[in-house]
Amino acid sequence: MARLQHRARKPMLRRLLDCILKICQTCGALKPSDPAHSIAADRSGDGEVTSWFFIVAGLLACGGTGNAASCPVVMNPPAVVVEYNGNITVSCWLLAEDAIGMGWESTAGGTGLMKNIDKVTLQIKSVVDWALSPRCYVKMADGSQCDVVLPVTVYKSMHSVSLHMFQSSPMLEDNHYSVRCEITSVAPARNLTVYLHKGNKLLQAEPILESNPRPVHKVSVMNVAVDRNDDGAQIWCEAKLTFPQVGLYLPAVRSGSQRLSVEYPPTFIHPENETLEVAARSKLHLNCTAEGKPPPDYTWRDLQSGQNLNEKGSTLAPSFHLQGTYSCTASNIHGIRTKYFTIRETAGNHPTMLVVIIVITIIVVRALLGSGLAICIFCQRRGHFQPTPSGIV
C-alpha cells in the first residue's frame, strides 16, 4: 500500500518540480545545464527528498510573493516597476494538482477564469492606473479560492527641480541658512531622495515620506552652514527616484546653481604682532594686509605721539622713523581688528656709521687744504701774495 501511495505522489512531484525549473529558468535562477535537471528524472526515494529540497530552493530563488505559501502560485517577475504608459508582462504559475482553473483579476489585462492550465499571463500594453494591483487567483476543486497580489509600482520622473534661498541679502559667516528644493510632478514620492550639494561636497540627503502613489509636488527644506571659504561657491540640489527592490536607479534631475555671497570681518594675513630691529635711517616697510568682505579700511597710529598718521592703505613706509610702537586697525561693517608693530634701532650699526662720517670728513679737509696750499704757492711766485690781518676789521 505504501509503495502505491509513493507511486501516486511521483507524477505530481515531477510536474511540480518541472514547473519550478521552468520558472527559475525564466527568472535566471537556474540554467538548463544545472544538475537540478537530472533530479527531476530521479525515481528513487532519495530523489524525492532531494526534489522537494529543490522545489523550496527554487521558490526562494525566484523570490515569490509572501502569499505564495497559502496560495499555490508563483509569479515571474515577482514584482514590477513600470513607467506610466509603459507595458508589463507577468506570468503566474500553478503549483497544485487539485485546482479547477486560474486567472488574473485586474483593472487592465484581466483574463477571467481559465481552466485546465498551469500558467496564465498578464499583459498590459499601457499602464495608466497609478494604483494598479493585479491579482493572480486560483479556484480549487473544493470550491475555495485564493489569490496573490502582484506588487506594481508605477513611476513618473519629476518634471523639474528648483532651488530657492530664503536669504536674499548677503550671508554672514558662521551662520545657518535655509534652502528650499522644489520637485514638481513626481511619482511615487516615497521612492524619492533629495540631495543638497555645495560645490563638489554633498551636504545632506533627505528621503521623502509620502504615501500617495500619484504625481505630487514636494518641497524639501534643508539647512546649510557657511563660512568665508564658501564665498563664491555654487550650491545646488538634485532629486533621484530609486527602486532597489528591482535594481532600478533612474538618472538624477538637477536644479540650477546659485552662487553664495558670504561676508565676514577682517582677518590679518599675518595676525601676530611684529617687533622689527632696523638700522638708523634705513628704509622701513610695515604690512598689515587683512582679508575681509566688504574690503576693510585701514587706520595707522603712532602710539608715542598719540596721533593718527595720514596713511590709509594696508602698508606703511615712512620716510623717517623713530623707535616706538605703531598700531594698524582694519575694519569693516562686521568687525574691527588691530595689529601692533614695535620698532627698535639696532645699536651695533652706529660705530660703522661714525667711521664712515669721519673718513668722509678727512677726505674733504684734505682736499680743501690741498687746494689752498697750491693757490698760495702760485700767488707767491707771481708776487701778488699779500697777507691779510687777522684782527677785526
Automatic annotation (TrEMBL):
Domain Ig-like span(s) in chain numbering: 265-344
Gene Ontology molecular function: integrin binding
UniProt cross-references to Pfam families, sorted A to Z: Ig_3
Keyword field contains Transmembrane: yes
Transcription in keyword set: no
TM ranges: 353-379
Keywords, comma-separated and alphabetical: Membrane, Transmembrane, Transmembrane helix
GO biological process: cell adhesion
Source organism superkingdom: Eukaryota
Protein name: Cell adhesion molecule 3-like
Organism: Betta splendens
Lineage: Eukaryota, Metazoa, Chordata, Craniata, Vertebrata
